[in-house]
Write a structure and sequence with these properties.
Blueprint lengths: L2 H28 L9 E3 L4 H9 L2 H25 L6 H23 L2 E3 H30 L1
């Protein structure tokens, strides 16, 4: 890959990262959420997830769990792509945790939504999933290039 191609790929990834960041801010802090029941705080791990499953609304439970994971997977993908020296397992998961924690605090303070420890857990898992996907991509790329 030429230097010019690498530069264009990096610029494209930066553009995607900016779009992702704006979308994350919109979805978590700006967009109206019809599922919000007022400002509250959940500090009991798994209680929101259990409550959703117990409600019988499996679609809502599925969307909440998968949505929180998918929403933060790009963070786990972008960190190793942009910061080669900052792409270890612990570094990426802690970064995802801190970003998620910040989002939850901002949701609670600015939008009168719920601060939910379950969301932080699911978002952190999403960051880990994204990191694993990028690591697998790099692994298979090396295997293919060795042939």
């Amino acid at each position: 890959m030429t230097d010019n191609t690498k530069k264009k790929v990096k610029q494209g990834l930066l553009f995607l990262f900016i779009i992702y960041g704006v979308t994350l801010i919109y979805v978590t802090l700006i967009k109206e959420n019809e599922q919000v029941y007022g400002q509250a705080m959940n500090l009991s791990l798994f209680s929101t997830i259990k409550l959703m499953w117990a409600s019988g609304n499996l679609e809502l439970a599925f969307v909440n769990v998968i949505g929180n994971i998918v929403m933060f997977a790009p963070i786990g993908m972008f960190i190793p792509l942009f910061m080669k020296s900052f792409d270890g397992f612990i570094q990426v998961v802690v970064t995802g945790f801190l970003i998620s924690f910040t989002v939850e605090i901002l949701q609670y303070e600015l939008t009168e939504r719920v601060f939910d420890i379950d969301d932080i857990l699911l978002n952190s898992i999403g960051t880990l999933v994204g990191w694993i996907l990028v690591k697998l991509l790099f692994f298979f790329k090396r295997l293919i290039l060795k042939r």
